[in-house]
Structures are given as C-alpha cells and as structure tokens.
Design goal:
The structure holds 2 protein chains of 2 kinds.
Chain A lengths: L1 H25 L16 E6 L6 H16 L5 E6 L6 H10 L6 E5 L1 H9 L12 E6 L3 E5 L19 E4 L8 H9 L4 E4 L5 H9 L5 E5 H13 L4 E5 L2 E2 L5 E2 L10 H9 L6 H15 L2 E5 L5 H16 L3 H9 L5 E2 H11 L4 H15 L4
Parallel strand pairs in A: 1-2, 1-3, 6-7
Antiparallel strand pairs in A: 3-12, 4-12, 4-13, 5-8, 5-9, 10-11
Helix pairs in contact in A: 2-10, 4-9, 5-9, 9-12, 9-13
Chain B lengths: L1 H11 L2 H18 L6 H12 L4 H13 L1 H4 L1 H7 L8 H12 L3 H36 L2 H13 L1 H4 L4 H15 L2 E2 L6 E2 L5 H4 L4 H20 L13 H10 L1 H16 L8 H12 L12 H24 L5 H13 L12 H29 L7 H20 L2 H19 L4 H25 L7 H26 L23 H23 L2 H26 L11 H4 L13 H16 L1 H15 L5 H21 L8 H5 L8
Antiparallel strand pairs in B: 1-2
The chains are: A alpha/beta, B mainly alpha.
Family (chain A): Belongs to the UPF0065 (bug) family.
Keywords (chain A): Receptor, Signal
InterPro entries (chain A): BUG, Bug_dom1
C-alpha cells in the first residue's frame, strides 16, 4: 500500500518534472521568421572556418558591414568562426547545414581550397555546389638573406648546392606553392615544419635561423620592405598575377620583380611546361589568385545570388573603397559576379592525374599521408 | 621620443578616451566573467560599433576590452574552482581552497590587487622596454624557447606532490595527451584513432575544466554543503590587500616573469601562471600551505598574468605576431581600425604605442579596481547551498568547454578528462604536474625539432641556451632541496598538492583501486610507445621517448602498489583519507559522473537547451529537493539566459540528433 502510494507520488513528480521542463522551453519558442529576397530585419550568418583575429577573420569583418549596407533591407551580417580540421570543419558544416535563403554564406581561403584540391579525407564539401560572389586575390614575394650573396633572380642557379632553409607551416599549407616552386627550379630547400604561421616564419628569417622566406603581399609591404631598405633582405621574385586568359603577369604591386614564369625561363632557358608547372599554377590560383572568396550554398535561387552579386559589386566599386581597403586587401582588383565565378573555376579545377601527381610528390618528398 | 611620450599622455588623459576605455572595460568584465568567452566574443559584440569611430577612441574601447579578460575570469577560478581561461588555471589551486575555507573575499581582493599591481608594473616596464625589445625578441629563437619549456617542466619538481615518481608520471600523461594530433615535424596524426576531433589535439580549455573543475564539483556535491565551510565570511577584503603588501617582492618577481615570458612569441601565455606559481613554491620556506589555500599561491599567478598581457603587446605591435589568443583578436581589431603593426610602432608611430601601453595600464586599474570593489559582495555566492548552485555551474562548464571548438566532442572530451581528474584527485596523482606537461608538450617537441634542424646539436652551446639551462639547474636544485627537507622533517610536513588532507593522511590498506588506475596509466604509455613505432622517425621520436621513460617511472609506481608497500608515499586514496569510505551519507564517486554523462548523452540526442532544462529540473527536484516553483524559476532563468547569450554573441549551442532530423524553431535549433 505504502509502496504503491510512493510509486504514484514519484510518477506524479515525474510528470510534473516533464511538464516543468516543457514549460521552460515553451516559454522561449518564437515564430519562425518568413524568408524573402528582401532581407529587412534578418541576420546573415557568415561562416569563417578560421579562428578569430586571423587574416580571413579580419577580411570578413572588414567586408561584413560594407556589404550589409548594400544588401536589400540592410540585414545585419554577423561573422561566425568555426575553426578546426585545417578549416575543413567549418566548410563541412556549411555544406551540410547551410540554408539556401541568402542568409547563410561562407568565406573560405586558400587553406580551405588546398585540402579540397588534394582530396584530403576530412573534406566533405564540394565547391562545385557553391556559387562564388566575390574573389579576393593576393600575391606573394619570395626573398632571401643577403648572406647567400645573390642580388636577383638571375643568380638563383648559383644557390644550388648551398644549404637553404625555409621555415614552414606544413607541406600541405599555402607553403606548398613556394616549396613546389623551388623544386621546379631544381633548387634544394630544406623545409622546417611546425611554424605557427607566416609571421613566425618571418621571425625565424629575421633571427637568421633560416635564409629563404616568402610573405603574402600585405605582410611583405608592411613588414619586409623596411628590412629591404636596411639591406637585410634581398627580394627575388613575386608569384605574379593571372590575367584574363589565365596567363602569369607581373604583380602590379611589385612591377620591378620578375614573376615565377619569368624566373623559370631564366633558369631553364625555355617557356614553362610540364605537369609540375601545371600543378604549381593550379595551386597558385587557389592559394593566391583567388585566395579568399564569398560563397552561397547549393540551390540558392538566382534572384538571391543576383542580390548578393549586386551588393558586393556596389561595395567594391564605392568611391572610398580603395582607400579603406588597402590595409586589409592590398592593391588587387576584387573579382565579383561572373569574374569571381571564372576565377574560382580556374582555381578549383584540377585533373585527377594532376591530383595524383601532387599527392605522390607530397608523399615522396615530405612523407605526407593524405 | 619625449615628444611621443607627451602626445600619448595627452591622448590618454582626454575625457572621451577615458570614457570609451571604461566602456570597453565594463563590457570586457561583463563578458569575461563567463568562462570560455572572454575577448573573442567581446570583439564580435564590439566590432559593429568600432566602424565610423575615430581610430584612437575605437582603440581605447578595444584595449579596455582586452585588458580585463585575465582579470574577471578570476571570479570563477576562486569562487567555483572553474578556471575561466588558461591564464587563471594556477589561481584555482589555492584560490578555491581559500574560498572553501570561507576566505573568498580575501582571496579575491588579493587576486585583484595583484592583478592591478601586475598590470601597472607591466606598463612601466613596457614604456622603456619597447624601445629595445626588437633585438631582445630576435635573440630568442627556437633553441632558447625549447630551453624555456624545460624550465617550465622543472616546476613539476615542486608541484609534483608527495611522490616524485607519481608526479613525473602524471606529467608524462600530460605530455602524452598534449601530443595527440598532428606531429609538428611531419603532420602525421598520432593516437587519434581516425577521429577528426582528436586530429586537432584536445583544447587546453577543455582539459583545464575537466581536470580541475569537474572533480571539485563532484567532491562538493558528495559533501552536499555550501562551497564555504565557514558560516561567516569573516576575514576578508582588507586582509587580501595586506597580503599583497606583505608579499610585495614575490609579486614583483612574478610580474617580471610575466612580462618576460609574455613578450616571447611562441611560448603562449598559458605557461606563465605555472612558472610564477612554481616560483612562489620554490622560494618560500614554509610550503605546506600551497595547494590548501595559501594566499601566495593566488598572488603569484595573478600578478604575473596581467603583466603578461603587457608583455604580449610587444611581439604583437612590433612584429604583428600575437603572443596570446586575446592578442590575436586585438591585432585583428587594430588592422580594422587602420593601425598596422610593424617596426614603425617604435619609430614614427611611437605615440600610438605609448597610447596603447598606458591605456592598458589604466584599463587594468579600472577593471581590477571594479572587481576589487565588487569582490566583497560576490564572495557571498559561496554560501549558497551547493546543490542549488551545481546545475548552474555544470551548465557553465559545459558551455565553456563547448566554446573551445564548438563541437559536441568537446563535451565528450570534457567528460573523459573529468573522469581522469576525479581519479587523479582520488589517488593523489598531482594534477598541476599533469597540466604543465599538457601545456608544454607541443611547444617542447616543436622547438626541439626546429632547434636541431636550424643549428644541429650545436644549439646546446648558444649563450641564451646556456643561461636558461643554468636557471633551470638552479630551479631543480631548489626543488631537490625542498624534497630532502620535507623528507627530513618526517611526514608531518609533507604537502599534498590536491585535497586538503590532514598532516598525516590515513594510508589505505586495500590498494586494489590504485593498482587498477596505475595499471591503466602504464598501459596508456605502452600504447603510446606502440603508436610511436607506427610513425616515421621524426613523427614518433618525441612521444616514443616520453613513453619509454614514463613506462619505467609509472612501472615503479605500479610495482610499489602491486607489492603492497602500504607505507610508501605512492600509496594514497582520498576515499580513505577523507573518510568517505563506509560513510553511507556520501554518494559513490561515480554517482555524479553518471549525472553529467547523462547530460552529455542528452545533448547528443536532443541538443543542449532541452538537455539542460531536463537536467535542471531533475537535479533540483531530486538532489536539491527544491519546490516546483523554485525549480521552474531557476530552470527557465538558466535556459533563457543561455539562449539569449548564444543569440546575442552569435554562438552555437550543441545541437543533437533531434535538431538534425526535425526542423526546430528558435532557440531549439
């Protein structure tokens, strides 16, 4: 009798408990917002698959309020950082969960594009499903220590046989581009991995721990050019930029420096050719020529894509954009709409044979297991 | 230079500058008090307002925000034993026992006064140091940084508790756990079992929360009392400030340590508080109180971690290399405002640098001052019955852990590390030694590998290496002297780094549970060694070496236990020492682990909010025996708070299978 009453009481308590938790939750539930091409009162979530405070994060936070102004209804754009897995985690999540209503976008960088090109097992996203609306290019400059005794790219061949060291983040990071470049030039460079970023690599160079290095354009301009003036750095070449037809041209930021294809010709005495160079160019495109981009997810309706394209175009064509953006973006033309689509098409198109080649190269050269 | 000095002084002292600075400080305090958030979430809140602001004003707000993050996280460290960020882990060791003793107000005021002192001292040093910093930083290469990690590791000698073999084994577990994930030299994945989460390594925040906070919560729940054992919060506030004045030289030395280590890019701020704490233990004569609520154990890490923020400014401003997580955010903010760090920060932009340095100092004064002022009242939280507080704290811990990588695996890792922490606490395997190993593992391996690649073994002869090596030797000498001293004075002066046990702990006679645990540790090292042999030479040599040594050390521990050496210092079981065993009123050790496990499993199925709501209601009704009304009020306020926080800060809460399959309305999605 007693037990029964007890049972009843505890059952009653359980029901009450459930009711209480249901009430807690119900008190919060609000109506689902109605979606429309007009984003008035909405909130755009911009996934950045990197940590707060890094280059891509700064890039996104620079663009967010400017694009917001130009979108119909001026929605708030908030940056949501989902770092991890070498940026594959945020991209995977975007692929899986993003809604096609124009309120979910992602900003990726070369570090997201490389694992995709390399066929990394962690990649569950497909760029072919996404529509780019902006491509932000950058460039890079390769430089050496004056102790090596060369003055320009023409003398690069004399470095063969010397002990060259390069401080790297990892063979599958953006450093793939300089490492492969040196390999193509038949110059043996010892890569020392485990650097926390390009900044750390530059510090190792300044300390004299390594004697060759490269930096992306904005870092080079702000932090290396002063060292060039002090005679502590000898600039050798830039990677170049891609023109409309996909050919390498000199980087307008560094008109005095030869680009990689020119250097190839100086060293080998012929126009660039072969699989290695083709692969280098593909990774250069994905890592520099179209380094960062804004993408809309699979199935986004054309009118939403157009609204975004217009907003981004208006943003980069604004009068004060160039002056405001220089510190964050460097002096490179931002590709929008069709041009962005074209840039990423070039950057993310790699044949299976070429992919196999680069995977083999990474494994044999750097013991990388992909 | 004098020119820059005066311009900066003028800027800093204007009314608007101070006003915005204070605004940033208040925002930083409000956010920073929540573990796991801090400056990063603050930045996303602040950023929309930075646009269109005048750069120096925007800068003021930004500095205010960043400066107080290592200040306000002290609240949870001291009051609840929850390390709010990596910089306040060492504070937990003595701050929380003080709170338990009813001296929360004293601990807090000592902590904030030390923070204030450290921050101000850091600014003074920076003013001169920034001018000569460039060559100094360039003098610290990989070789020197590797030696610094060794110096940090030598602190295990003083923080290793009663038994040196056990202390070193615990440190080894930390080293091994810290090596999980990609190898620095080759990128090979070690000990990851093909799990994507483990490939990135286990986040420090999760480890800190699991190893310190969860075991304390469980212990307090089992005792089922308020945090503070004393009914009155008696001795307090003024004493804390007096404590600082009494230990001013210790605070000064720790502030110097903070400045120097903070200024070196690459080592990370998470080591600073441990080095300072170890230094405090080394240099005091009566060490018995450490770990049981010695105020010096609060003063040392707190005066170093605010000085560290000042130090970390140097590589950030001069090289554009952030020395800590909050500095990375600060750097991003600076670029957005339009200030590019670089060599010009000590030449043409010197006035900006000084503005930043002094703003940081003022922000410290305002922030630590406000906390100091508040601590008297906030300390009263420790008198609330624990069963009522616990669900809030568990919610906060889970939320903080989830912010580490925003993955449900964070919660699983938290639970796993929590169980390890519970067992380590029970068998007195020193958790600080474990954490030091964990914090230093990746830096040690990376810098050793790089140093050898850069200079060959010749790196050992570099002058900087020799100097740091000598300091390390002195540090080990102090530790050894400490060990022999306590040996001489018999066991009555022995210290226990963890629980507040009596002078002579009861030795358990049934060593079964200890044997199992030590055996599991031994097997873990064996697995680590096996795993190392699966890697290439460069990828496996570090973990293989660690495991090889640790197999011997943990083997000794295991041998002593298996042969039933009851009187050996290795033998310890808190269940016996604290008298829990045989006490019917105390829940079993795993009882509350199941509760938390239930919460995590719930998150997997129905997501965080629903799971938390059910957890709250169940816990309050069953464990705290609260009334329905009270339960409802507490539960809904917690749920509403979490949902609002997540929405405003654009943070995800863990979602479960339910959210994956069914579309749920906000906030349940």
């Amino acid at each position: 009798m007693n037990t029964m009453r007890n049972n009843k009481r505890s059952a009653g308590k359980l029901i009450k408990a459930l009711a209480a938790s249901a009430a807690c939750i119900a008190s919060l539930t609000v109506a689902n917002p109605v979606h429309a091409v007009d984003f008035d009162g909405e909130r755009v979530e911009w996934i950045i698959p990197f940590k707060e405070g890094g280059g891509s994060d700064t890039w996104a936070r620079f663009f967010a309020p400017l694009i917001s102004e130009n979108l119909p209804g001026k929605p708030a754009i908030v940056v949501k950082n989902i770092p991890g897995g070498g940026s594959t985690k945020g991209a995977n999540q975007f692929q899986r969960k993003a809604k096609d209503n124009g309120l979910n976008i992602i900003g990726t960088s070369g570090s997201t594009q490389f694992p995709y090109l390399l066929g990394d097992t962690r990649v569950n996203y497909d760029y072919k499903n996404w529509t780019p609306v902006l491509a932000s290019p950058t460039g890079g400059v390769f430089y050496v220590s004056p102790e090596l005794g060369i003055k320009s790219a023409a003398e690069l061949a004399s470095l063969r046989g010397k002990e060259l060291k390069y401080a790297s983040q990892g063979a599958t990071s953006l450093d793939l581009v300089p490492l492969l470049a040196m390999d193509i030039l038949d110059i043996d460079v010892q890569a020392i991995f485990g650097m926390k970023g390009r900044g750390a690599g530059r510090l190792a160079f300044e300390r004299g721990e390594v004697n060759v290095d490269y930096q992306t354009s904005s870092a080079y301009l702000k932090k290396v050019v002063p060292l060039v003036d002090e005679g502590k750095v000898v600039p050798i070449m830039s990677w170049g930029v891609l023109d409309e037809d996909g050919n390498l041209q000199r980087d307008p930021n560094f008109p005095d420096l030869p680009h990689f294809a020119e250097v190839y010709e100086m060293i080998h005495g012929k126009k660039p050719e072969g699989t290695a160079f083709k692969v280098w160019k593909a990774f250069f495109a994905a890592g520099f020529a179209a380094q960062k981009g804004i993408f809309l997810p699979k199935g986004t309706p054309q009118d939403v894509i157009d609204a975004w394209g217009d907003a981004v175009e208006k943003t980069v064509k604004a009068d004060d954009f160039k002056s405001r953006s220089e510190l964050v973006l460097g002096d490179y033309p931002q590709a929008v709409k069709g041009k962005a689509v074209k840039a990423f098409k070039a950057a993310l198109d790699i044949s299976d044979a070429d992919r196999e080649w680069v995977r083999n190269w990474l494994t044999s050269r750097y013991n990388v297991q992909l | 230079m004098l020119d820059a000095f005066l311009t900066a002084l003028q800027t800093v002292m204007t009314g608007t500058h101070l006003l915005y600075l204070a605004g940033g400080v208040l925002l930083g305090l409000a956010i920073g008090i929540f573990p796991g958030l801090g400056g990063i979430a603050g930045l996303s809140l602040l950023l929309p307002f930075l646009y269109g602001m005048e750069p120096t004003t925007a800068l003021a707000m930004l500095i205010g925000l960043v400066a107080v993050i290592p200040t306000s996280d002290t609240f949870t460290s001291v009051l609840m034993g929850i390390p709010g960020s990596s910089g306040s882990q060492a504070t937990v060791l003595d701050g929380f026992p003080m709170a338990k003793r009813g001296e929360a107000a004293r601990a807090l005021s000592a902590a904030f006064a030390s923070s204030l002192f450290g921050g101000l001292f850091g600014a003074v040093v920076l003013t001169g140091f920034v001018l000569i910093a460039r060559p100094v930083i360039l003098a610290f290469g990989s070789a020197e940084l590797f030696m610094l990690t060794l110096l940090g590791l030598s602190m295990v000698g003083v923080l290793g508790g009663n038994s040196l073999v056990k202390g070193l084994s615990a440190c080894g577990v930390g080293l091994l756990l810290g090596s999980v994930g990609g190898a620095p030299a080759t990128g090979e994945y070690r000990m990851t079992f093909g799990n994507f989460y483990l490939m990135d390594g286990i986040p420090l925040v999760v480890v800190g929360l699991g190893i310190f906070a969860l075991p304390e919560i469980i212990d307090l729940l089992r005792q089922n009392s308020a945090i503070s054992e004393a009914a009155e919060l008696g001795r307090g506030w003024v004493n804390g400030i007096r404590d600082l004045i009494k230990n001013r030289w210790l605070a000064l030395r720790c502030a110097i340590i903070g400045c120097i280590v903070g200024a070196l890019p690459g080592l990370g701020g998470s080591v600073v508080d441990w080095i300072a704490y170890g230094h405090a233990v080394q240099t005091t004569k009566d060490k018995d109180g450490f770990g049981n609520g010695d105020v010096r154990g609060v003063i040392a890490p707190e005066s170093s971690n605010n000085a560290k923020e000042g130090g970390a400014l140097i590589p950030t401003l001069l090289f554009g290399i952030p020395g800590s997580g909050s500095m990375a955010v600060f750097l991003g903010g600076m670029v957005l405002i339009g200030i590019e760090p670089g060599p010009s920060m000590v030449t043409s932009n010197l006035d900006v640098t000084y503005t930043i340095v002094w703003s940081l100092a003022i922000a410290n004064v305002v922030g630590a001052g406000a906390c100091l002022f508040l601590s008297k009242w906030v300390a009263k939280l420790t008198t609330i019955p624990y069963a009522l507080m616990a669900p809030f704290m568990i919610t906060v811990i889970c939320f903080a852990a989830f912010q580490a990588t925003r993955d449900l695996s964070d919660l699983v890792a938290l639970l796993g590390i929590g169980v390890l922490g519970v067992l380590m606490k029970r068998f007195d395997w020193p958790r600080p030694a474990f954490l030091i190993g964990f914090v230093l593992a990746s830096g040690m391996e990376t810098y050793l590998y790089q140093a050898i690649q850069f200079d060959g073994l010749g790196f050992l002869l570099k002058p900087g290496v020799l100097i740091i090596g000598a300091i390390t030797a002195i540090s080990i000498y102090f530790a050894a002297r400490h060990a022999t001293n306590s040996g001489k004075d018999d066991s009555s002066t022995e210290t226990s780094t963890d629980s507040g046990t009596q002078a002579k702990p009861l030795r358990p006679t049934n060593l079964g549970p200890q044997k199992l645990f030590a055996g599991a540790i031994f097997l873990t090292f064996a697995y680590g060694l096996y795993d190392a042999f699966q890697q290439s030479m460069l990828g496996g040599v570090f973990t293989g070496g660690v495991c090889g040594v640790m197999l011997i050390l943990s083997g000794i521990v295991l041998f002593k236990l298996v042969t039933n050496q009851v009187e050996d210092t290795v033998n310890f079981d808190n269940e016996v020492a604290a008298g829990y065993q045989g006490d019917q009123s105390i829940a079993s050790l795993l009882h509350y682990v199941y509760w938390i496990a239930g919460l995590v499993v719930g998150c997997y199925f129905v997501g965080f909010l629903i799971s938390i709501a059910v957890f709250f209601v169940a816990f309050l009704l069953v464990k705290a025996r609260a009334s329905m009304l009270r339960t409802f009020v507490l539960c809904s306020s917690a749920v509403v708070f979490m949902a609002t926080l997540a929405h405003v800060m654009v943070l995800d809460l863990p979602s479960g299978l339910l959210q994956e399959t069914v579309h749920m309305p906000w906030p349940l999605n």
